[in-house]
Amino acid sequence: MITATTPSPQRDSAELVVEIRRWGMDLGFQQVGITGIDLHEDAAHLQAWLQAGHHGEMDYMQRHGSKRSRPDELHPGTLRVISVRMDYDPPNARDAWEVLDDAQLAYVSRYALGRDYHKVLRGRLQQLADRIAAAIGPFGYRAFVDSAPVMEKALARNAGLGWIGKHSNLLNRHAGSWFFLGELYTDLPLPLDRPTTSHCGTCTRCIDICPTQAIVGPYRVDARRCISYLTIELRTAIPEELRPLLGNRIYGCDDCQLVCPWNKYARKTTLPDFAPRNGLDGAQLIDLFAWSEEEFLKRTEGSPIRRIGYECWLRNIAVALGNAPKSESATDALRQRADHTSELVREHVRWALIEQTRKISTAA
């Protein structure tokens, strides 16, 4: 365990922050901010969200008690949080709307087209910590990238990286929302950055566009209706009434970001790590549905998609095939999975076959 260092004078701390920002930029982060650990208002918002049951089956949201809103409980000795953001929208990916408009293609959320962001950001946060230690000596820290009970968006907001929009994503006036967040919890008494102000105004585009109306009010998302939750976090059956609303989205959903006016300022990533792999920026549903489990594991190695597992992968694609236009090839592909060993897969295939049969019958 790295031991804490003796606090530096304020002048030295201010100079250190300048260096931390420079090192962060050198490591590929687009912005670095410093904040304290007071999150009591966000804790109240989280508690109300949990009490409303909006977390669905994400029981882990409740497991850690106050650690999520009290950084010094999660990592004792924490005084400050170094918050960073990194752009991820790949420059050469197929146009998102083009893919969504073709129901025979599979839509994968832009953040998951390339390498697992956990690994990319965590490695660079560790390098940032190493540079700080080389400059001042050992100090107390812990790096997080969506890997522990951390209120990353609230911390990033407080660190001046943006504001939380009505869709609950972080927004930046100069960079939109296509970026990842990461944190270094540290015992260094660094000077604080100022939070930014909100700039959503009266805009409701994100609320209006949501396919399942999961944004139940400004800044309130009911995860039980959110396509990202349904296709990634949920491990049981997708509610039947929501299946037609998923369209061809097989992993996540970006609609609320795609319509956000602030994303006209978003910048494409310069990192090859986030470039599309295996043609997932516009692959045919039938082709992905044909993957064996071995092929799924091989092709999703180093990808965030792997975390949902093969069973949910087939479940999601089955729903998309049920939503696809009438097609003998889609029906044949579904029939190939009708006797799958997983009841979860079989049930979704049955539903999809009924949808395909209904469309064919109606057309006839």
TrEMBL record:
InterPro entries per record: 4Fe4S_Fe-S-bd, 4Fe4S_Fe_S_CS, QueG, QueG_DUF1730
Please list the residues that make up the active site: D146
Binding residues annotated for [4Fe-4S] cluster 2, in chain numbering: C210, C226, C253, C256
Source organism's superkingdom?
Bacteria
**Localization terms from the record:** Cytoplasm
- Cofactor notes: Binds 2 [4Fe-4S] clusters per monomer.
Domain called 4Fe-4S ferredoxin-type: residue spans: 188-220
| GO terms assigned for molecular function | 4 iron, 4 sulfur cluster binding; cobalamin binding; epoxyqueuosine reductase activity; metal ion binding
* Primary localisation category: cytoplasm
Q: What positions does the entry give for [4Fe-4S] cluster 1 binding?
A: C200, C203, C206, C260
From the UniProt record, list the reaction(s) this protein catalyses.
epoxyqueuosine(34) in tRNA + AH2 = queuosine(34) in tRNA + A + H2O
- Which pathway? tRNA modification; tRNA-queuosine biosynthesis
BP terms from Gene Ontology: tRNA queuosine(34) biosynthetic process
Q: Which cofactor does it need?
A: [4Fe-4S] cluster; cob(II)alamin
GO terms for CC? Answer: cytoplasm
| Subunit description | Monomer.
Q: Which family does it belong to?
A: Belongs to the QueG family.
Tell me the function of this protein: Catalyzes the conversion of epoxyqueuosine (oQ) to queuosine (Q), which is a hypermodified base found in the wobble positions of tRNA(Asp), tRNA(Asn), tRNA(His) and tRNA(Tyr).
Name of this chain's protein: Epoxyqueuosine reductase
